[in-house]
Amino acid sequence: MWVRTRDPRRRGPNQEILRQDAARLAEWGEWLRRAVADPDRIRDASPVAGAWHFRCRIHNFAPALQQVALERRGPDGSWETLHARFTLEFRAFAARRRSRLCRAFNVPIDSPADRLRLAIRGIGQVAVGAIELTDGVHRLAAKGRRKKILGRPARTRGWPDLDLTKNRAVWNLRF
User: Is the pTM of this model over 0.85?
Assistant: First the structure.
């Protein structure tokens, strides 16, 4: 199928992923060699992980096609997406009306001083909870609410407005 449908002179997506992984592996190997010479280096960010990790739980409880994104505020005031993941919950004749799906969301970050927010894009609602930052030794829990529902209920009629470039809801986080 690939030979019949793809240009043999172009790299495929799997080949590109392998090339990027090989470059990251080489960079990590170099970082490990430097860390052996200077063990204090392991407390800093590496090519494969941040010095800190943002963690939370995403609960699908209603029909949704969401993209949950962790964003960091830059020095110029703009927000950059550090990582995003999709959630999907549907309703069909054979499906349960409400599920109890819960997914982990883990994103490496450089510093607990970073200004962070969760952004929701897409259709429907999700609940987010168990938010924390950790460096593996220390744990910082999010201030304020322990769990929050983000987004708007999905439409029950008509064609949904699926725009994954626009934030439907945001939660500014404080630790």
Answer: no
Taking only the tens place, the pLDDT of each residue in 29-49 is: 998 898 889 888 777 777 767
Amino acid identity of residue 71, one-letter, is: E
Domain ranges (residues) in the chain: 2-43, 52-173
Q: How far apart are CA 150 and CA 110, in angstroms?
A: 26
Identify residue 104 by its one-letter amino acid code: A
Contacts of 123 (CB under 8 A, 6+ apart): 63, 64, 65, 66, 151, 154, 155, 160, 161, 162
